Amino acid sequence: MEHRELSNLYFDLSKEILKSIAFDKSSKDNQKQLLFISCIESSLDNYANHIYEIFKNEIDSISDLNFRSKWIRLKEIIAIRHIIESEFADEGLISSLNDAKERVTSVPDLNLITSNKSNDLKKFSLILDKYKSFKELLRKILDEC
């Protein structure tokens, strides 16, 4: 299977998993949230591999890197640098994904008067929307080049 197809498969899987998440803070629900995040990360990883295949003569190999490091390396490609950099900004896809992962994996601080922030349907839907926009923008740039 090609990297692009795998990326789409993981993305579709993440959408299906999202339908089953109740956001009730149970351990089963936390596992589903982590599975959702893992699917998005795998999709990003495979999409990075797809992008690398197009520009492999311009940058060093990314095969031994994790998904985040692959995208950092892909920022070396001038044609798509600004698109990728925006996803590492505070409200970008990569930052939102890392924040969601931290919320699931962090141990609640019992010394806080207010509760720790938790993930919700809106946040996960926003991650999916950001990812769709990101892929669409990259696709348009790559088709024009």
Structure, explained:
This protein has six helices and no strands. The chain is mostly helical. It is elongated and about 50 Å long.
Task: List its salient traits.
single chain, 6 helices, 145 residues, mainly alpha
Question: Layout of helices and strands, plus pairs?
Answer:
Blueprint: H1 3-19, H2 27-55, H3 67-74, H4 81-88, H5 93-105, H6 121-144
Helix pairs in contact: 1-2, 1-6, 2-3, 2-5, 5-6
Order of helices and strands: HHHHHH
Count of runs of 4 or more consecutive helical residues: 6
Q: Helix proportion of residues, in percent? A: 55-70%
Structural class based on helices, strands and sheet pairing: mainly alpha
Give the CA-CA distance, first to last residue: 25 Å
Poorly predicted runs are none
Strand content: under 5%
Radius of gyration: 16 Å
Globally, the shape reads elongated
- Mean pLDDT across residues: 93
Q: Give a short account of the largest sheet.
A: none
Counting DSSP E segments of at least 2 residues, the number of strands comes to 0
Please give a quick description of this structure.
The model has no long low-confidence stretch (mean pLDDT 93).
